[in-house]
Fold PF03932 family protein CutC.
Amino acid sequence: MKKYVLECCVDSVESAIEAEKGGADRIELAANLIIGGTSPSMELYREIRKQTDIDIFVLLRPRFGDFNYTENEFKILKSEIAAFRDAGADGVVIGCLKEDGTLDMERMKELVDEAGHMHVSLHRAFDMTRDPFESLEQAKQLGIKTILTSGHKNTAPEGKELIKELVEKAGDDIEILVGSGVNADVIRDFMKDTEATAFHLSGKVTLESKMEYRKEGVNMGLPMMSEYEIIQTSADKIKQARDVIDANRK
């Protein structure tokens, strides 16, 4: 029987606990998922490690925006890998691009070497490359174990045909992790029509803030987001995805 993987992206202790309750195999830990994720704090990692037994892959991204980093940003990225490796993280999720839209092979090799024994995933920087098949082969050369992708589209359902091809070309060499817009129904569809075996989702719900006093007309961040709504993973949504995978294994 094939090995199936359910990965949940989280940015809080509460979400990590919910992911484990729902049956996720591992979490991708980040900060600021609302902007695609940035590097989390070491204290967040440590608290989740204390309160769960789930594997933790740490997303490392020094800032919002593109994946073409300055020398200072690259130094930070490399140092973060070393810090989380020494702290016992199970994996890191990374990606660097050159100006021409190809993987920055020189820098990526440095980061993979720094990761040492940890599992290394290439995040959706892959979806911003100019040629997905060239990038797949480069990732194989680097020894990367997982590629997170939406098939070069905004969501995985939109990129389904490319993902199907990537899974076939990846074979047993590298895990193609289907992400973006994924839920139980999407997983069911992919398991029926493709050979994909790894799925990435947030399983999020919006919770109402417990604040009674609410300041009007002041935003702490993105003006379209309310400070009085909390986005958090739901164990029920993760369990729905888990149940679909378990019921449709090939």
In short: The chain has one domain: 5-245. The mean pLDDT is 95. The helical segments are 13-22, 42-51, 71-87, 105-115, 132-142, 160-170, 184-193, 235-247.
